[in-house]
Design a protein that fits this description.
The structure is a homodimer of 345-residue chains.
Chain A: H1 6-22, H2 28-34, H3 41-54, E1 57-58, E2 67-68, H4 70-80, H5 88-100, H6 105-120, E3 123-127, E4 130-131, E5 136-145, E6 148-155, E7 160-166, H7 173-187, H8 192-199, H9 204-226, E8 228-231, H10 245-256, H11 258-268, E9 277-281, E10 293-302, E11 306-315, H12 320-343
Antiparallel strand pairs in A: 1-2, 3-8, 3-11, 4-11, 5-6, 6-7, 9-10, 10-11
Helix pairs in contact in A: 2-3, 6-12, 8-9
Chain A binds a DNA duplex (30 and 30 nucleotides) through helix 2 and helix 3.
DNA sequence: GTTAGCACTCTCGCACAGAGAGTGCTAACT
DNA sequence: AGTTAGCACTCTCTGTGCGAGAGTGCTAAC
């Protein structure tokens, strides 16, 4: 891997950087003209030939300039991975936006997706934090009319669900309030599984409600952890490599199908490397449809408690230098926010 | 308008229907071959020439077949508007999906958008119902830690908001419960404005909470009524008229920008024609970017109480016969559901 | 009013040539 | 040994010209 001479390294990085900007194959002459290297085009040709031999560059056809291969990009990314930092002004802007937004998880997600899409000019995707251990906090029962009761369920972490249940017979608000406060004492801090265990040995009214609580929490856990937020779907259409629509369509279609997308994200991330980014270049064997694309993915949250995934999809020649630190920064922010809400109790 | 002979009518409808299917200009010969009319191509040419003269058809160039003009489509739509009905099997499938879904507004919206996009193969958009008169129903105050209190607010219509407020000094859960139940008696059924009026003449704790209630409701009203759900963004890329990306991109971009989109919908719909559809053909002067597109829009909900908009964007040669009844049906379903939740109290 | 026939027009696809860009190789230079 | 100038070569891209095909409008006959 590191049998590259110093000159070859700088040349390779230069070529990739230029190609990311111009979206065109880079020739030796162009290189000499644009950057005043103290070298002739012939020398550069020799080096380029060597880099091609080594698999970092590729020629679309015999008489075109060079284009980075996946290996080339990977080298490029590995070089800049550590240094790339988001300018402080951008950091502040983003933080500001988050602090201005509401305290609702879905708002955070939407905002994160929007910021990622904007900054990177790619397609962003954010999954809501999946809460590993859901714990009961509080329940309210409000009679609405006849046998219909509105149940409000508060979970540790501040999440609130509501649900309407229909009882076998009308029950007064007073009795409902009593039941609620009794249950609150009984269930405080218990996990779903513990509550489910309790259900069996309870009397009629309690059983109805407990069953519903368990059901609701479980269903909701599925739904919320399945929630996927995307933004910038159309950004990618601006890229020159997607002028023939077919390619773009196939890639975008995947992003339009939440289930497939979730699957893809799950397969490529593990829960315990918070802070570490993954950069998938050219599909990297993961998904045939993304052969022309790259993805930058990160996990955020608190391992073992609540974690989610976020990432950006772009063309293979996306601006890694900008996107990588952005993804990292936003992941950090979201982690902090998740941490705050969880440790709140 | 109705100076069309019977034969011209059937011919016009035939041409449009064929063009919607084939996406190609329709020539006289093709028409004779495909549908066994008892006419020669020459006769048809004469009629086509007349239809062109009248502005219903157009020739892309001298020696191509005919293509419908906007006026042609409009005539087509006006002819089928009343008869088009959704097959009962489809109706049942859709109803079923709605009844299976949760009771959460945002789930309805997502589902509606998904169904519309799928059925029509176009881009769908649904705005959440805007509640005109928000009324208070119930509040709960739950102490979490120190001075932080979780406020849960239930509105008439079943909507539930939560919000964390920080008090000047710690207050016991008991006192909070008292306050909550007092407020519940006081505010039941009041509108936001009425509550705001009360705020002035209340003591410290009440005032804090009341202010927050008003704030929260107002902010939430803005947010929810601003919520826009879209689906099928990539469907439109499959259409042959969008193979050059530029056109598609501009149209899609608008659908990616919630604010612009909302503006557009608001401008083209009025709140009081629930049940009536609007069909905008070729942008219809509304929006330059949609020159190649059509939109089918409907309002749903209960006028004066809560209404929202939903619609489908597709190419001008979209399948009106299928999309119009679908939009109408889904609008009806959503209206029913809104009606149910509102009249629930 | 309808139809057959015909000349006309315009697009589309294809082949072909020339320009341009970039390469690899060789030989000369430092 | 490394670097450079020069040159022949290859391949894409662009524009042009031409024939095929499709469709039309018009005229004259039915």
């Amino acid at each position: 891997m590191n049998d590259l001479t110093e000159r070859q390294k700088t040349l390779l990085l230069l070529i990739i950087r230029d190609h990311i900007e111009s979206a065109q194959p880079i020739g030796s002459k162009r290189l000499v003209d644009h950057y005043h290297l103290n070298l002739s085009s012939a020398t550069i040709r020799n080096e380029m030939s060597a880099l091609t031999e080594m698999g970092y560059l590729r020629q679309p056809h015999t008489s075109a300039g060079r284009v980075p291969t996946e290996a080339g990009y990977r080298y490029f990314v590995s070089q800049m991975m550590d240094q790339a930092v988001l300018p402080e002004t951008v950091q502040r802007t983003i933080s500001h936006q988050f602090h201005q937004s509401g305290s609702d998880v879905s708002q955070w997600m939407t905002l994160a997706a929007s910021i990622l899409a904007h900054q990177s000019q790619g397609v962003s995707v954010v999954t809501a934090p999946h809460i590993e251990q859901i714990k009961f906090k509080h329940v309210e029962l409000i009679s609405t009319q006849g046998r219909q009761v509105l149940m409000i369920l508060v979970l540790v972490g501040g999440e609130v669900n509501q649900q309407i249940l229909t009882l076998a017979e009308p029950v007064s608000q007073e009795r409902l309030s009593q039941t609620a406060s009794r249950l609150n004492g009984l269930l405080a801090g218990l996990t779903v599984d513990a509550i489910a265990a309790l259900t069996a040995r309870s009397d009629a009214l309690d059983r109805d409600i407990l069953t519903l609580i368990v059901q609701d929490v479980r269903r909701n856990a599925d739904r919320v952890s399945g929630d996927i937020y995307t933004d910038g779907l159309t950004n990618v259409l601006a890229e020159p490599e997607f002028t023939e629509t077919e390619e773009a369509r196939r890639a975008l279609k995947i992003f339009g199908e939440p289930s497939t997308l979730k699957n893809l994200l799950d397969r490529t991330t593990t829960g315990d490397n918070i802070g570490g980014l993954q950069v998938l270049i050219g599909g990297e064997g993961v998904w045939e449809e993304f052969r022309q694309c790259s993805m930058i993915i990160a996990r955020y949250g608190v391992p073992g408690m609540a974690t989610g995934t976020l990432g950006v999809l772009g063309p293979m020649r996306m601006s890694y230098a900008k996107t990588i630190p952005t993804v990292r920064f936003v992941a950090g922010l979201l982690s902090d926010m998740v941490n705050d809400t969880i440790s709140g109790e």
